Amino acid sequence: MVGVDTALRRLTREAGKLLAPYGFQGSEARWVRVAPGGVASVGRSRTVRTWTDGQQVVRFGLEVSATPTSWWEFCAWRDARLGRPPAMLEEATGPGLIDARGLPAELTEWWSLRVDPAQEGQQALPADVELIRAELPRRVHAYARRALRLLEPDHYLDELLADPDPGIATSEAIVVLLADHGPGPHLEDALAHLHRCLEQHGGAGGGANALAYVRDRASAA
Description:
The protein is α+β, with helices and mostly antiparallel strands. Helices cover 48% and strands 17% of the residues. The chain has 8 helices and 7 strands, in the order H-E-E-E-E-E-E-H-H-E-H-H-H-H-H. Strand 1 and strand 2 (30-35) form a beta hairpin. Helix 6 (168-179) runs antiparallel to helix 7 (185-200) and helix 6 packs parallel to helix 8 (207-220).
């Protein structure tokens, strides 16, 4: 028998071991893989602790994200303008707009790790531990493949373009990723949409950086 927190740490380590064959490395609760298209990341979500009938329940799941190389280059350009050192590629994060969407519901629902009511000392319920351990391989596989899929050429961009009503953050990311392809009608349309978004919000938001980035790239071409 082990306590809930110990069980959580052990399950987290098991997730990391299962991710290793996919090329992911890391510690704690975030594992990354640097790939030709950028950085893929899989992590354990934050934990939520609740009490039911006086018994603690810890809920958690997995998270997935990807940072295309072109977005990292944009962030490095932005940091240089602000006098900040650029982040290493393996430490890159963002845009943070695409997650586990598209995966089956049974792979995205959080697990529940309950306290065994028959034991003293906040011991984890063995049935919950075994259920999570049994489900980890399938879920890790799905999340690893999802993260790496997002780094395939233009896949992240295509998912952003599927948004029927992109806001400033999504429009900014679309402009940055399209800029990597050079000038063209798609980039012009994306720039026009970002301009409209900024006007609607009084110029607030980070989208102005993307506009300056495209101008800077154009002048350097």
